[in-house]
Amino acid sequence: AIGGNGKVTVAAASFAGTLATRIVLAPPRDPEFKGMVERNNRFFETSFLPGRSFASPTDFNGQLADWLVRANQRTVRSLGGRPVDALEQDLGAMTALPPVAPATGLSSRVRLARDYYIRLDRSDYSVDPRAIGRLVDVTATPTSVTVACEGAIVAEHERSWAGGVTVTDPAHVQAAKQLRRDFWDQRRQAEADARHRHRPEPGLVVEQRCLGDY
Question: Which of 49, 59, 153, 169 makes the best surface tag, with the fewest CB within 10 Å?
């Protein structure tokens, strides 16, 4: 994350340092501070986005990459030429990326509810029901969702970018059915054991009073 509270996070500042650069946070409600960025965004909104739909960030990036090949052929007045002609010069001036990529994605820790699903971005993902009631660590990347409990993987799913989707692993459903069967078997056995403990022993002689005494 970049920030959100008026300062750059440690992770973002550290990554910027490996690139021999620094991050400047733009003041709120001041689009003129980053005028070039705003102009580029407006160009994308009017020339790239209309009429398109995207299934995921990967799909978005793929369509954008294909479109940029054509868009970079146009003449840009501020450059005095085509962006594609300046690409080689720009690449030569760029610093090499660090050997270790920064940590990306979302991570959180939640307690797994009895329905054995965790929620991420308005979609639900199933988890091994044997982790119900325990703390699980959820890690999400643009393409996957992984859930771990005490270091062991208890769920792996392809990430869905459609809202309101329920993603279920059939193995988790079968495990939940087996746990329910085991629960009811144990309950019936406990009830049978309780009845057996309160049942009189067979052949036990119980003294009865003569009816004539009444």
Answer: 153
Which amino acid would we find at residue 58? T
Q: Which residue has the tokens 């459609």?
A: 162
| Token pair in block for residue 114 | 């009895």
Cα 109 from Cα 214, distance rounded (Å): 74
User: Domain count of the chain?
Assistant: 2
Q: Which pLDDT value is given to residue 199? A: 65
- Tell me which residues of the chain have a pLDDT lower than 50: none
User: Same structural domain for residues 82 and 35?
Assistant: yes
Whole-angstrom Cα distance, residue 171 to residue 130?
A: 12
Grouping H, G, I as helix, E, B as strand and the rest as coil, residue 56 is: coil
Q: How far is CA 85 from CA 65, 74, 77, 82, 108, in A?
A: 17, 10, 13, 5, 45
> Domain of 25?
10-93
DSSP 101: P
How high is the pLDDT of residue 97?
A: 85
